[in-house]
Predict the 3D structure of the following.
Amino acid sequence: NAGVTQTPKFQVLKTGQSMTLQCAQDMNHNSMYWYRQDPGMGLRLIYYSASEGTTDKGEVPNGYNVSRLNKREFSLRLESAAPSQTSVYFCASSRTSGRWAGELFFGEGSRLTVL
Amino acid sequence: AQTVTQSQPEMSVQEAETVTLSCTYDTSESDYYLFWYKQPPSRQMILVIRQEAYKQQNATENRFSVNFQKAAKSFSLKISDSQLGDAAMYFCAYRSWADGLTFGKGTHLIIQP
């Protein structure tokens, strides 16, 4: 029962480096999401994909790009990492899209540190 | 835009006692979902309970129950017979359409043995 799988779990980058966080779900969910979690801020939505082939900005999209590669996979890319992007990143998916969307299922999180 | 407010950054309760975590939200929608998620030190986000706005009956899951007041836009979580394993961050979250959950900033729950 893998659910939502994120890689890598931990990463240290230098300012200006690029990297991609990978996410895959095996629950046949339509919708996928990327969140970041910072101390005292809760989780904030970066980007989401309501269905395969679509992506939309969330609350804090600046500095990030995403790709919905297929129904299972949704990646998050940092083109030029900045210290402000030091955070814990969560990928999530949900059962349906549209009006009666259900709860989100989360991956275990990826801790990213930008020096 | 929807907002979710958790006014208690930290709560403490004695083991076996009852504790209530508060949550209020702001929305102009009439149909939506509300959730409570638990995040233990392992960092995993775990769904505790969910409530559909169209349902008047408050949701219950074993020792966890909610007090949903739609007119007041209030959604509190009651934990009965608190256990050491309940210690965690608790996040209230709101959802209407497919654009993800809006989270509150969380309440850190401490269980005193």
Observations:
- The mean pLDDT of chain B is 93.
- The radius of gyration of chain B is 13 Å.
